[in-house]
Design a protein that fits this description.
The protein is an alpha+beta fold. The chain has 13 helices and eight strands. This is Transcription regulator BetR N-terminal domain-containing protein.
Length: 321
């Protein structure tokens, strides 16, 4: 099956290219791969991953559905498993992938993102330096079991990570309508993790103060957007608070050009699929979670006020033993 799909893809690429352009040379330039890496894919020794398929599809206007066959029941998935030895490189590649997705979506005024989140979404916290840094610090701590971890104050992000975080925020804020379903325990769960690192003496008092201040700013911004029902750049913002916890984070992204489904696994890793049936199933699942949730954007004034006041109280009280 793998070789058959690979052969179909190579045939589609040949048909899309002018006759004088060699497939291998074209793919080396398009995918930034070496000659041997490209030939392994052409021979079928290695499969094209989902990111590569997406790039090829966009560049040559090739339908992946047509390659698979309209009656084929196969669904394509890609999992971005971030490893210790290349953590920052893979994290950057993931940011580049989603930044490109948002860039493609903003061309279409009715593009949308729906998410059910059991932790703070990237779009909520990446603009806050200390919170964004702490998430990466936590993941590095978890992955680097064989190395001593430095204190948070001595942990520095590569400039490329900082720049790509900013680019992600810029594109995600200006691309689509957003529906977010947030587990009501997201903040307390995050703060419990912060408290754990504080007790390990890896966070100092100033670190705690900085993170708390950024969380207060984030809550203020979210409350303001919830009242107006407007996401950045005048996009619609539907914000739900769930009365149950989720087992993981789900998202669905849609525009006339494509659908994309993602499911978070092992905290930082993501399973992705452009397969329409998978995307629709994921969308249906996210929408079903609204039954357990309360809409607080442009409605539910009392519930919204109580929720944000409670989050601020949790933030004030979490470090009082």
């Amino acid at each position: 099956m793998k070789n058959e799909l690979n052969s179909k893809l190579i045939i589609s690429i040949k048909e899309a290219l002018p006759s004088q352009i060699k497939v291998a040379t074209y793919l080396m330039d398009l995918l930034s791969l070496g000659r041997e890496a490209v030939y392994r894919r052409i021979r079928g020794d290695v499969s094209f991953d989902l990111d590569e398929l997406s790039v090829i599809s966009k560049a040559l206007n090739i339908s992946i559905d047509d390659v698979l066959g309209k009656n084929d029941t196969t669904a394509l998935f890609s999992i971005n498993m971030i490893q210790e030895e290349s953590f920052f490189e893979q994290y950057c590649n993931s940011l580049i992938f989603y930044t490109d997705i948002f860039s493609r979506m903003k061309v279409y005024p009715n593009s949308q993102v729906q998410g059910a989140n059991n932790e703070l979404p990237f779009s909520f916290y990446l603009s806050h330096e200390k919170i964004a840094k702490f998430y990466l610090y936590k993941w590095v701590y978890q992955l680097q079991t064989s190395k001593p971890i430095v204190p948070f104050s001595e942990f520095y992000l590569p400039q490329r990570v900082i720049d790509l975080n900013k680019k992600y925020i810029s594109e995600s804020n200006s691309s689509c309508h957003t529906t977010s379903i947030l587990s009501q325990n997201v903040l307390s769960s995050f703060l419990n993790t912060v408290k754990y690192f504080y007790k390990l003496n890896l966070l100092n008092n100033q670190d705690i103060e900085d993170i708390k201040n950024e969380l207060l700013c984030m809550l203020e911004r979210l409350e303001s957007m919830s009242i107006s029902g407007v996401w950045m750049d005048d996009f619609e913002f539907n914000f739900y608070i769930s009365n149950i916890d989720f087992d993981t984070t789900y998202s669905y992204m849609q525009c006339p050009e494509f659908e994309l489904s993602t499911i978070r696994v092992f905290s930082i890793n993501v399973v992705r699929s452009f397969t329409p049936e998978i995307c629709q199933a994921n969308k249906k699942w996210i929408e079903s979670l609204k039954r357990y949730s309360t809409l607080i954007s442009k409605s539910g004034d009392l519930y919204r006020t109580e929720f944000f006041n409670n989050q601020r109280k949790i933030l004030r009280d979490i470090f009082i033993d």
